[in-house]
Amino acid sequence: MSSTGKKKKESSPVTPLKKRRASWSELWLNHHHSLDYPSKLQPLTPPIPKSKTLFLLPDLTLLLPDLTLLSIITKVPSPHRKTLSLVCKRWSRLHGCLVRSLNVSDWEFLASGRLVWRFPNLDSVDLVSACFVSSGVLVRGSYQSLSFFEESLLSVETVDRGLRTLASACSSLRKLAVANASELGLFSVAEACSTLQELELHKCSDTVLLGVGAFENLQILRLVVGDVDGLMLVSDIGLMILAQGCKRLVRLELVGCGGGFNGVKEIGECCQMLEELTVCDHKMEPGWLGGIGYCENLKTLRLVSCKKIDLGLGLGECLSRSCPALERLHLEKCQLRDKDTVKALFKVCEAAREIVFKDCWGLDNDVFSLGIAFGFCM
């Protein structure tokens, strides 16, 4: 077989053509095609782009009820919860249900109703920054009295409408800070939020304090009065209205308030649970110190930024009565050059165990001698 096959090969009249040598470009293409997957391994359907896989996968969190998802979100540390609100509208709403305290800087956020929809369970809201228009400059501090300009504040009607919107949706509100509200706006809050315990009110007057007196369960009150065109907005009448309405006060702070002996005396007699009183940059009438002696359960008295603690007139009332339960007297940035006033103050606070001076003027050996004479721990 091999010999015959060899002869047939030799006797074949047709000679085969010589194969052409492949070029370098053909070799490069053949090499890269060889690296492709074999046809038998190719998938039957084309691959899905990575950008579209997220939309095709089902959202398994839709199977969870809101309460279960809320319990999961509460396990996340507080600093990281804000990012969860960016996942979707549902997560944003659930995150808002966990927020309890909010500082609002844009009034439109409240007026449009978005605030109460986004955060339905608020119990602490600060609206002071939002009450000032963008052109105004607001400086807030622990014991600062502000001078207000009418053009820098929202109108009373606008603030009242916002308070009604807030009160209608957040009936469990416990703390509120607002500026330039009227007694009508405060009445609406007092009617809807009966559990409100802490109120900070900027730019108030005697008539506005009628609304403050409607909060029967109020325990902490901060009044930042200031002055408008040199006119005092709170007098003895306002302090009496406040005392008659808020009989459960435990802490009271008066910043830039007027008034006198009768107003402070009424507070002491009506607010028998008052334990802490702060008077800052006051515009009180002479002899107002005598009214402090009627605060029988007062434990801490703070006088801050008082250029004149008392004008020195009518101090005989101060010497007749003192605070029996007082434990601490704190004087900060006060003028102490009038030694008669200092002596009257020490007489009213003779039961105090501790006295603190901080950045006061006129502090000399005579003041320390008076303090030691009254038995203060200095």
Q: Can you walk through the features of this model?
A:
The protein has 378 residues and is of the alpha/beta class. 35% of the residues lie in helices and 12% in strands. It has 16 helices and ten strands. It has a ten-stranded parallel beta sheet, with no helix packed on it. Helix 15 links the parallel strand 9 and strand 10. Helix 9 packs parallel to helix 10 and helix 15 runs parallel beside helix 16. It is elongated. The N terminus is likely disordered.
Descriptive terms for the model:
disordered N terminus, 378 residues, 16 helices, 10 strands, alpha/beta
The major sheet is characterized as: 10 strands, parallel
- Low-pLDDT residue intervals, each spanning 5 or more residues: 1-12, 34-46, 135-139, 141-150
Beginning-to-end CA distance, first to last residue: 130 Å
Determine the number of helices (DSSP H or I, runs of at least 4 residues): 16
Number of strands: 10
The multimeric state of the shown protein is single chain
Q: What is the averaged pLDDT score?
A: 80
Give the radius of gyration.
Answer: 39 Å
The portion of residues forming beta strands comes to: 5-15%
Class derived from helix and strand content: alpha/beta
* Helical proportion, percent range: 25-40%
* Global geometry: elongated
Strand numbers in spatial order across the main sheet: 1-2-3-4-5-6-7-8-9-10
**H-E order:** HHHHHHEHHEHEHEHEHEHEHEEHEH
